[in-house]
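Box S1 | Example of a co-folding query
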Amino acid sequence: MTKPLILQVGSFNGHAPADGELAERYEVLEYWKASDKVAFLREHANRIEVVATTANFGCSTEMIAALPKLRAICTWGVGYDKIDLESAATRKILVSNTPDILNDCVADIAWGLLLACARNIGWGDRFVRENHWENKTDYLPHGARVSGKKLGIVGLGRIGEAIARRGLGFDMQVSYHNRNARADVPYTYQPSLLELARDSDFLVLATVGGAGTKHLINEEIMRALGPDGRLINIARGSVIDEPAMVHLLASGELGGAGLDVFEDEPRVPDQLKTLSSVVLMPHVASATHETRRAMTDCVLENLHSFFTQGKIVTPII
Ligand code: 8YV
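Box S1 (continued) | Returned holo structure for 2-keto-D-gluconic acid
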């Protein structure tokens, strides 16, 4: 029996079995392995109705334009800042992502970064491993209290809400900035992002990426968060003006940062790596066995549903 065809933009190597599971079910055109990508698309364009991709690879304007028969894009991940949704909508191409299943694990990592950053957990780990404790060669500076402090959340979507809920467990005053206030949450709405930064001990970014939020966290916002404030980012690197952040962290005008995402991944500014006030992770907020399994299952379900019923299960559009 012939298998349905999909174009896979990039490897799902964030979940080891995923590529194999796709290949069991589908004839997979491995775009990322093609040496001449334009020629590869041209050669197969008339057969490709479905694209499987990841949050990282997306599906560009050029790719959509090169695939006249395209009917569905199924992405592995919740973020869609690298998919041209406008072109997809114009052509009535269905687009699915993997929503909700990663909320908790991403929120957990936001909290891990927040705690690690405030209480010097990464620094303390290095301190013990490097025998400074045993040899009494140095001391670990005091951290900042977390419980009872002020938590500001930028983007109170589903992940932002999971982060906020955890804040209540730490007896925190939780405020948020969104385009619109929400009537269904017990947290304080702050229409001014600048005021939110000024009034937060910890500012956690959980907003969508893309052109609309590029450098939303600029120098002014980070100065307002200030030398005792800490910035946590599990959203997208593009949301922060990264050079400005590095400068303010290095000078101590911004107190600290816990970062899972960067502007030009996997490149991380060298200066950031030298700062003890910073905790760095390699874009792995959703990377637990359970969540990555669920993300792959969700993509497989969307593909199966599209090929059997012409519908997707978790649509963005
Ligand atoms: C993925 C993500 O780790 O879901 C997203 O938007 O950023 C992450 O969960 C990864 O980017 C998939 O490519």
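The chain has a mean pLDDT of 98. Residues 14, 54-56, 76-79, 102, 283, 286 surround 2-keto-D-gluconic acid (CB under 6 Å).
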